[in-house]
Design brief:
The chain is α+β, with helices and mostly antiparallel strands. It contains 10 helices and 14 strands. Strands 6, 7, 8, 9, 10, 11, 12, 13 and 14 form a 9-stranded mixed beta sheet that branches. Strands 2-1-5-4-3 form a 5-stranded mixed beta sheet, covered by helices on one side. The model has no long low-confidence stretch (mean pLDDT 96). The structure holds adenosine-5'-diphosphate and manganese (II) ion (MN) (3 copies).
Length: 347
Amino acid sequence: MKVKLEYIWLDGYEPVPNLRSKTKIASFETEPTLEQLPVWNFDGSSTRQADGSDSDCFLNPVALFADPARKSAYLVMCEVLLPDGTPHPSNSRAAIPDDPDAWFGFEQEYFLYRDGAPLGFPKEGFPAPQGEYYTGVGYRNVGDVARQIVDEHIDLCLEAGINLEGINAEVAKGQWEFQIFGKGSKRAADEVWIARYLLLRLCEQYGVDVNFHPKPLGAERDWNGSGMHCNFSTRHMREIGGEAYFKELMAAFSDAREEHIAVYGPDNHLRLTGLHETAAIDEFTHGVAHRGASIRIPHSFVANGYRGYLEDRRPNALGDPYRIAGRIIQTIESVTAKTLIEDAFAA
Ligand code: ADP
Ligand code: MN
Ligand code: MN
Ligand code: MN
């Protein structure tokens, strides 16, 4: 059986990598498994990942999904490796800590753009101010084609095997959100990248671009920016938790504020102004049901004895979910390590 394998990877552009992909035709006796997929190569000098004189980079398959839009086809998420088999410097996935019991829910916001403006914007100027677009219905609020796009995107994700949990129209006209839930930093982030890929590819046929910029209409205007809130929990947070642990965790997040901001997506100073349901970029705050805080604590978290998940509202829509999830695990693990050391001294 001949199948189409779409090898997908992140290129070497800074500060944000682009998705790249190419098709490999391969023969298998039965449905291929991840382990059966060959390592492949590409011209790294065309993706800012190598010099022309020594241009080969390698694609190592790390996650396999069905490709519902094509016949006999698969989507293959890859890590980029150097010729000696070690991770390429651009390979953020290889560098992050993982924990299968760390659960992540990413809320990916984005704008649909056509001819340089959000879908539904008039040729000149702006549509009616924000207010009725969020979760809105009707042509006046969502236009004529966005609903079809986001609906097709749901089906593509579900048929690919991605754990997409929902979509909604967002605060600005032309702005939408999808949510992905995954267990483990790598798996959750793989699914966000593949969901982004499917959306970008789907929109080609509509002459529409996906704009992930965190503040595409500028910081001066009263139009929403795009975030990628990261909801997270570890087994310890879900099953043990407690107010003392929560306080230690928030202290660790506060101490690592700059390290978190560094991987939460570029241009975040335009978005994290402290207005429009965002935190200020230069301070760390948390609060119950507080949408102006860096970390929002769900009511259920306090009601359950400081157990459950927390929402970091600072990551933006351009952020790399590998780096975001990895950094969150790193900060959580620093608390666990500190607690272990203190317990050892106390004993
Ligand atoms: P809101 O828009 O109110 O911030 P959403 O419903 O868009 O909330 O997103 C909430 C996210 O939280 C979902 O992606 C969901 O998967 C995630 N989530 C729920 N429970 C947990 C958990 N225990 N650990 C991590 N993420 C969780
Ligand atoms: Mn949401
Ligand atoms: Mn949202
Ligand atoms: Mn949210």
